[in-house]
């Protein structure tokens, strides 16, 4: 019996030693692969502003066996450090010590709702070495933390620019993201469902299970998991963003049904239709104040080189098709996608405004009047989460684009930067945007776990 025990203990020890050795080998392999990827990465060749604006330059695609991988390691903000506002603006910490704050919504009384959220489990989103490497890159970028699955309420009752009160407003959600208040109903877009809850002015917590309005495309792949929601001006319709289940439909078009789209939902019946399609990963949703058109920000496809494809924002046409996966930026065919759909590509609409290749635009907020300087009024703020598939890195900032009579004009200007260290590490990454009740811009930072407040004048100390 003693010999058997000794053999069992020895077997266990050998197994543990083998597992540790395997882990060391995998770590060493990942380091080697990252070094190889970095060494083989293509460099962006376009000059500044060539891939932004209404008419971006679109060079030939660059497809390589080894793609460009250039991930900014997430390190967070050192105590007392802040992002850098543009001249004429100031920034302060509105709220800190949050858990992966991703999206924002301002209630009529000025309270701020923050979706503390991240991706759900996605057991079928790839496998093998590629998926393993993707997970390591997500971890390095600060995006692999568990989802808190809650919405937190922040209140700045004394108006000093800092939230002195916070409470758990809604808990036990499923990767919640977008929020919209219509009358006394608060709509919340989980990754797999659109929910509604009764709301009264001043409430600091919702203590009900809510009502499901409609199911949303999700499932075990759920590659782009975020779902944003906005109500029509009269509240009769809701519009929900649904990202694609892949980069370029490599998981099969059967897994892309009602995805890469904006859905229109009737809140009274839960019935829905595809409002616009071919939008690889739409996020921000806002009604443009002059034209009344619905605008969105879209993350375009990867692995065509550092200069392709520009992410963009665009007015969304009812029934419009924007190319994905068969073409990009109108009718530029992506030959990696087979079989092609030439008749569909012929109908592909050109987006209104390019935001730069791989900048990952998320938050979108139009700004008309308020305390901001004139050069940051009458236009759109866009939060750029930042690149992983480009050298050098792009995004990691909040930009402003001027509008004239409902159309973007000129080149973007930097509004809030300094999210990357001189060594290229990420102090933070901007995500959701919202204009608060006093006309200041709130910026969610999911790596820095902070909500920043951008305004004119001297920053709050």
Structure description:
The protein has 461 residues and is mostly beta strands. It has a single domain (41-456), classed as Neuraminidase (6 Propeller), CATH 2.120.10. Helix content is 12%, strand content 32%. It is built from three helices and 28 strands. It has helices at residues 2-40, 128-140, 342-345; strands at residues 52-53, 84-85, 89-95, 101-106, 112-116, 150-155, 165-170, 179-182, 185-189, 193-198, 211-215, 229-231, 238-242, 261-265, 272-277, 282-287, 294-298, 310-315, 327-328, 332-333, 353-357, 361-367, 379-384, 397-404, 407-417, 430-435, 441-445, 450-456. A five-stranded antiparallel β-sheet has the order 1-21-18-17-16, with no helix packed on it. Strands 2-25-24-23-22 form a five-stranded antiparallel β-sheet, with no helix packed on it. β9 and β10 (193-198) form a beta hairpin. The radius of gyration is 23 Å and the shape is globular. Residues 1-21 and 25-32 have low confidence and may be disordered.
Low-confidence sequence ranges: 1-21, 25-32
Instruction: Kindly report the spatial arrangement of strands forming the biggest sheet.
Output: 1-21-18-17-16
How large, in whole angstroms, is the Cα Rg? 23 Å
Largest sheet: 5 strands, antiparallel
Based on the coordinates given, report the CATH architecture.
6 Propeller
CATH class: Mainly Beta
CATH topology: Neuraminidase
Q: Helix fraction?
A: 10-25%
Tally of discrete structural domains: 1
- Class of secondary structure makeup: mainly beta
Please state the average pLDDT score: 90
CATH superfamily assignment?
TolB, C-terminal domain
CA(first)-CA(last) distance: 71 Å
Percentage of residues in DSSP E strands: 25-35%
- Number of helices in the DSSP assignment: 3
